[in-house]
Specification:
repeat; eight-stranded mixed sheet; hydrolase; 816 residues; zinc ion binding
Length: 816
Amino acid sequence: MDTLRSHLPKVRIPEPSSRIYKQECCVSFSTPRSEGGLFVDMYSFLAFGREYVMWNYEKTRNPVYLNIQETPKQVSEDRPHKKPTLLAIGVEGGFDSKEPEYEVSYSIVILPEFISLSYPSVELPEKVRLAVDAVLAAVGAERKEEVAAWTADKKQVSPFALSLQQLENGVKVPPSGWKCSQCDKTENLWMNLTDGTILCGRRNWDGTGGNNHALEHYQATNYPLAVKLGTITADLEGADVYSYAEDDTVEDPLLADHLAHFGIDFSSLRKTEMTTAERELDQNTNFDWNRIQEKGKELEPLFGPGFTGLANLGNSCYLASVMQAVFATKDFQRYYYENVKLDDAFKQAPADPTLDLHMQLSKLAHGILSGKYAVPSNKGLENEAPEEPKGKNALTSMLQGQDGIPPRMFKSLIGTGHPEFASSRQQDALEFFQHFLDQVEQNHAAAAGEDPSRCFKFVVEERIMCSVTKKVKYTRKTDNILSLNIPLKAAVNKDEVAAYEKRVAEREIAGEKSDEEIVRPRVPLAACLESFYASEEVQDFYSSAINARTTAIKTTRLATFPDYLVLHMRKFVLAAGWVPKKLDVFVDVPDEIDISNMRSNGMQPDEQLLPETPEEIPEQAGPVADEAIVSQLLDIGFSKVRCEKAAIQTLNTGVEEAMNWLLAHMDDPDIDEPITASGNRETSSAVLVNESDVETLVAFGFLPEMARKALRATGGNIETAAEWILNHPEESSAMELDVGTGTNEPEPEVKYPDGPGKYQLLAFVSHMGTSTQSGHYVAHIRKDGRWVIFNDCKVALSGDPPKDMGYLYFFQRVQS
């Protein structure tokens, strides 16, 4: 006790704002359930496993620790020990689904001698008792971060629910036997909470679902809220309430009263339908999810070095799949695992290692690659008889996987300051991959040559040739992914697809349901690559050689070939009505590719450069209003200048669009000013671009600069901005190529890895679902000549890797 008293200056009582770690080691994945438990530094409140706590003592000389140990409670010998007879969990005769119960014990440990003192104890100094009590009572930093991320996704209370006026129309809704009042649909039914009308939901893009009657009812009545029948149970929080006015799933705190108005006793109802969120995850899953996850196949679980799964923290599969693929590369393996020891990384880390990217990446790399945590889990197998056979054909091997490691500290750190990655919402794996590489690059700003993310970088060279003078301009930019369009016209099975679509249409007209397996277009990867480097004509290009606008020919090639080439398949497009749609397509990806023909040749001896572009380029002639639209608006009674402006501002898309624009801009101070040469489109200086709108357009594959330009050109209207981009494909090139001098001034020399253009497929990340912001991601990685599936914490030998369904493909250079 005297030793403890002598160290009281090294004991702190935590403040309410203190970050207290007590669930996981800062430098490993040890927990209170690990051997020796967890040691909480009573000065810094950082936690360390038994193997690592001495590192902290040697670095900080902090000697006092709270040791937390959780040990499984002993199961009574009187408990019957049954061998499972059913391949099921949590049912009689099946595997036990209950988590084991743990006993928690605490002690005060003094280093370096590891002197242990019992806790609680009245003999402990008061400062120590108060400090430990505060630590145990506090919400752990790990938990705080999880809660902060999760609360961002909570459904919002709808203001319409609080002031909803329900009609006294005598409608009483029975507890079952519902049917759409406009058609024969008996599933996906919604009851409008204003008038009690039961109608079917929206029609999905593939023709399934409802007939849009609930939506059409809202459009006709403006009754804003509807509840999905079949999701109402005694737990009203699980009921699916949709606000058409807010276009989102919402919370109705008065739902019990609103249901009672139509005679519905929610306490007696059972769930028979999926919620909107569940259905969103289920869209296209009967085939895609099962195939991508290789469901229904006996997959052999894998354990040991390189086969560690990552536990899902709640919509974190995008992170898990990308990081598994990243740590399959030699560069990241060498930098964060082979060439760095955890204690060295800890010594180099700042006072709080949870905030150091190098430390947390080293921790993650050692966790994934060492094999220390890739061991079979015993969860749910407490009832298993000792003689139960092991092996890939045994019941246990089919259920017994691994717990995986939770990348919570890494996720918290990499998402710091980012509005999306700091949340628990699902994210786009591509956006996360690029954000991750940006963070790694910034972390190596002082030593760029050591940056492992350089293995993905390459230089893109664009050549543009004036069609009049044949003079050229070269521009270069760096990138880390090759984003490819999928040309459906290049599908090798167009006849089969057309025949299938015809059969589906005929059955739909006849009111028959089709059980036929979907026939998807099948496009070769070679066609996607060809669409990238094919020459394209650029309209309205300003040629400094003739001081006028003309056409030009643009070609794109790669000036360098990276060690690892990442291909991104642009599967998400805007469908009719500006609804995001995922292309239902297969891309045939071979195990090996050769992109040598995509190598740029640079400037040739017989080529002449375009002169320097002047600072001010002559203004382009302004857009012209469609006379038919103007005429119809004039008939309604608007002035001519207003009619012309409305047509121009809506890109001459139609009378209804122009009318809506006019009604929204009637009070604009310049509404009656004459039209200028630019067509009075809002200038970039006058329009503030909403960055969330930019991100939305980028998600559809548009360049950020192009998205901003389109939003400025259309006054910030995201729908007309998207149409503007689609109607001005030449602007993407002209925007980049009108900038620069076109001279041979040397650029700062930045060398990136380069080599032959032959690559072998190393890994691919697949996406299941209708949107990159929903669904599920899975990684497949080639290891020692075998394909392995990484599905969060599940790691197994892949029986049939779905290489034609990938979203991101990681290719490794084949050394000649």
